[in-house]
Structures are given as C-alpha cells and as structure tokens.
C-alpha cells in the first residue's frame, strides 16, 4: 500500500520470547496504521504489550524477543521501508533519522560521565552530520523545550532535575529531524504539573517540527489532552481504536469502558484508581476465545470459544467485541460523559525549572 497519509503500517505483528515454560506471545497479530502528523495514544494495563508494540516500530524489541509480521514505514519522499527487514547498519541510521524513541528513564538515556554537549555532538558525528549546523539545531531545540541551551549543554545529567532531563532528551531525540517520535511513558517519573507541561510541550513541538507522535501510557487522562486517536491494548493485542472523542463518549469494548469507569477523576493515572477485577492474561497460556472474557460482565459462550476480530463501530472506530453495540448499556460508566473529558491544560512553561 502506498497511502501517503499513512506513516507506519503494522500488519500481523507478533512478538515472541522463548521461555522455559513455552513460547511467550507478548504481541499477538496486531494490525495498526499510524497517520502522518497524528498523535496516537496507546493505553493499557501494565504488561499488556504496549512497549513491545512500540519498540517494533523501530525493530528495537529487546533480545531475545523476536518480531515477525510487517512494519512498513512510509517516508514523506522515497520508497517505503520494511523495518523488520533492515540490516543493523540500516537500522542505526533509521532509528534516529526517521523514527526516534524516548523512554521513561531519561536518567539512563544520558551517559552520566560526559556532558550533555558531548552526547549531542556524538549523535551528530555518528550520523555523519555537520557539527556546527547540528549544534545550532541543538540550541534551537533546547530553546523550544524551554531550556537554557548553554547551561544544559555544559551540564552532566545528574545536575539536571527529572523534568529538565526529560525535556533535554526530547530535544536530543529531535536532533536528526525524525518524522516520527515514539514516547514510551515519557512522563511516568514526573510530578503531575511537569507531566502536563511536557504534554503541552509535545503538542507545540508536533506543530513546529511536523511530527507524528505515538505516545504510550497508563494514564488515560493525560492521553485525552494530547491524542487525536487512542488505541487500547489488552492481552497483547488491540481491543479498541478510535478518535479520542469516540473513545471517551462511545467506548464500545467492555474493557475500555472498565478503564473509563476506573478513572472517575481524570487527573489521576489509571493504575492508581480501582483496578479492574480478575487476573491478568498470561502470554504463555492463551485462553480460547476473547482474552477479556474471564473478566467481562457480558461474555457468553461465543466469547469463550471464538476470538472476536476488530469490527467497525462507525467511521474511524473499531472494537474487538461481538457485542460492541450492547456494551454501552451493558457496561455503564459511573461518570457522566460531560465529566469525562480532561480539563485544565497547563502551559509548557509551567514548572519549567523543576
Ligand atoms: N525480556 C523479556 N522476556 C520475556 N518476556 C518479557 C520480557 N520483557 C517483557 N516481557 C513480557 O512482555 C509482556 C509485554 O511487556 P511490555 O513491556 O510490552 O508491556 P507494557 O504494556 O509496556 O507494560 P508497562 O506498562 O508495565 O511498561 C509482559 O507480559 C512482560 O512480562
């Protein structure tokens, strides 16, 4: 497919690990398109496979994990790239210049014994870039994340606060002008004000640098302020995907509805709220039928024997539930719809020195 509006096309993606007790299937037959310039949020419980899915966008699943299926990257100009088929040297270039990833632990992403300046320079050098022009861009990027460029470049990572490090890392990730930025829980270790400030910042950077963002989090409220679309992950696969408004007002999978119900206060991350009853799925021993059926209040025999495919609920909204039509009535959400969307966005400069 050469759809110019699609930047990444994931088809039949599996990620597996060979374990002593059998094969662990931590991403299972995922199909997903990311549109150019959108912000796609991926949400789900801890261990549902979000990081493995996102790492596959860069063919960066940790060893000895194996990604199979197809991940096609469509640059704005030029031929599509089959990411899982790239050689190591092709991947080294692809990873910073086309797709960059920001992880939760900004602390460990910077080398503790060299100044931040060295790390910006080395990134430019490793990719054969012009150093003076690249360092000019570094200054510009650091300013656009509301940091004082010279002060930051002359610091060691340990001299910076968590919020400053995370913003410096976002600047570094944009140094080689990637089109897609994958952010894996980039705000998890930060306080609430700094989290909101980074989200607003990402919104600004997206417009300024024409980026596509894939944002992974447990934090549904945070996503509602940033994402154009939300993909919900459960048991190593997607269960629902739609525009943020569709997911907030017309959630059609019982799991999404349970997540919304567990988030009455949109200022508190999901995992701190009441947990959905029942045990988490096992990536080695997969049950038959719908993975959510043991926890689902409306599951019947069909759900326990047959796996529901993704079904179209309406335009740009799909749900992997046979009863997507019944789910809204059958699985009520206690907060009224008009209490659900997040409110009170902060500005990127708030908390800037934290
Ligand atoms: N090195 C590994 N070997 C085998 N299984 C792993 C390994 N790392 C992670 N897993 C398993 O892969 C599954 C998916 O993990 P993943 O990190 O993608 O989940 P996640 O949804 O991103 O979770 P979190 O939100 O906690 O980061 C989990 O069941 C996890 O136990």
From TrEMBL:
Polar residues biased stretches: 343-354
Region (Disordered), start-end ranges: 332-354
Signal sequence residues: none
Membrane topology designation: Peripheral membrane protein
GO function term, MF aspect, one: ATP binding
Alphabetic keyword roster: ATP-binding, Cell inner membrane, Cell membrane, Membrane, Nucleotide-binding, Translocase, Transport
GO cellular component: plasma membrane
Compartment annotation: Cell membrane
Chief site of localization: membrane
Gene Ontology biological-process entries: peptide transport
Name of this protein: ABC transporter ATP-binding protein
Protein species of origin: Halocatena pleomorpha
């Amino acid at each position: 497919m050469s759809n110019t509006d699609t930047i990444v096309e994931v088809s039949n993606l599996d990620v597996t690990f060979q374990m002593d007790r059998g094969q662990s299937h931590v991403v299972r037959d995922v199909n997903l398109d990311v549109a150019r310039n959108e912000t796609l949020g991926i949400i789900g419980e801890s261990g549902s496979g979000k990081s493995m899915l996102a790492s596959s966008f860069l063919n960066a699943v940790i060893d000895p994990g194996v990604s199979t299926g197809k991940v096609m990257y469509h640059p704005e100009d030029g031929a599509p790239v089959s990411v899982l088929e790239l050689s190591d040297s092709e991947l080294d270039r692809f990873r910073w210049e086309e797709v960059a990833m920001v992880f939760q632990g900004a602390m460990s992403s910077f080398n503790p014994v060299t100044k931040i300046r060295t790390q910006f320079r080395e990134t430019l050098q490793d990719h054969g870039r012009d150093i003076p022009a690249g360092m000019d861009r570094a200054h510009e990027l650091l300013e656009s994340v509301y940091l004082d460029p010279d002060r930051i470049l002359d610091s060691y990572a340990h001299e910076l606060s968590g919020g400053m490090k995370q913003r410096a890392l976002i600047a570094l990730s944009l140094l080689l002008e990637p089109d897609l930025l994958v952010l894996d829980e980039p705000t998890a270790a930060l306080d609430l004000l700094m989290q909101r400030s980074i989200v607003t910042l990402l919104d600004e950077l997206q417009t300024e640098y024409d980026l596509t963002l894939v944002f992974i989090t447990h934090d549904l409220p945070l996503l509602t302020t940033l994402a154009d679309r939300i993909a919900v992950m459960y048991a190593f696969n997607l269960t629902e995907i739609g525009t943020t408004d569709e997911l907030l007002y017309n959630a059609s999978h019982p799991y999404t509805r349970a997540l919304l119900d567990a988030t009455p206060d949109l200022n508190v991350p999901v995992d701190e709220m009441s947990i959905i009853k029942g045990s988490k799925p096992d990536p080695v021993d997969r049950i038959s039928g719908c993975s959510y059926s043991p926890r689902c209040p409306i599951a019947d025999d069909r759900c326990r024997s047959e796996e529901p495919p993704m079904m179209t609920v309406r335009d740009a909204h799909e749900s992997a539930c046979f009863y997507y039509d019944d789910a809204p009535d059958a699985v009520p959400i206690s907060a009224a719809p008009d209490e659900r969307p997040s409110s009170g966005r902060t500005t990127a400069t708030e908390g800037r020195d934290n």
